[in-house]
Design a protein that fits this description.
Blueprint lengths: L2 H13 L7 H13 L3 H12 L2 H27 L26 H15 L3 H20 L5 H40 L1 H5 L6
Helix pairs in contact: 2-6, 3-4, 4-5, 4-7, 5-6, 5-7
Length: 200
């Protein structure tokens, strides 16, 4: 076992909840590690339905950056399927999870991609909120025994690389793509928009 892997396991055991962990703390971690994810679509939907043209463009960019990063994660996990802690018998697993590759973390990837896109795209307040929530999710999923700390670091690196590579592409295609999707949206939601419920 290499030094990096040894460090990874040592950090994991420091963070992972042990047999004496209070039940309330475990439930709190589950709420963060599994529940916060469902608030991201609500945020993006809100930015689309009531946001400006620029915010809608950011929503589309965030979605595409996230999708590409998740495909990158899948490729990495296929080429190098690093086991999860419970697959190695390390620590305590407080939440059920499929026995698939742990590196990089999809959850952390999603939070990082969306948070980074919003932060650098002019919606800094929400970007900071999403990134801070992502840190909470990272802690929770290591605490619950379904990820190693380096799974989270790997997710951040993948997200940064994909964002950096995709941003020049989005500068060229972002305006027409956003325009097409906005026209489709206005066609499908014409009645609520006319009634003033949604922004046109």
């Amino acid at each position: 076992m290499g030094e990096l892997e040894a460090l990874n396991r040592t950090l994991y055991l420091l963070i992972n909840g042990n047999a004496d962990t209070p039940h309330g703390l475990v439930q709190f971690a589950i709420a963060i590690g599994a529940g916060l994810m469902y608030l991201l679509p609500v945020l993006l939907l809100g930015l689309w339905l009531w946001g400006s043209h620029g915010q809608r463009s950011l929503v589309l960019k965030a979605a595409l950056v996230t999708l590409i990063a998740l495909f990158a994660n899948l490729a990495i996990g296929t080429i190098w399927p690093h086991p999860r802690p419970f697959m190695l018998g390390l620590g305590h697993a407080w939440m059920a999870h499929a026995a698939n590759a742990s590196f990089p973390s999809d959850h952390m990837t999603i939070f990082t991609c969306i948070g980074l896109t919003l932060l650098l795209g002019g919606v800094a307040g929400w970007g900071v909120v999403v990134l801070l929530a992502g840190l909470g999710v990272a802690w929770a999923r290591v605490f619950l025994g379904v990820h190693f700390p380096l799974d989270m670091l790997g997710a951040v690196v993948v997200s940064l690389l994909v964002y950096a590579a995709f941003t020049p592409v989005w500068r060229r295609i972002g305006l027409p793509v956003t325009g097409v999707v906005e026209r489709l949206y206005r066609s499908l939601m014409a009645k609520p928009i006319k009634a003033g419920w949604l922004r046109g």
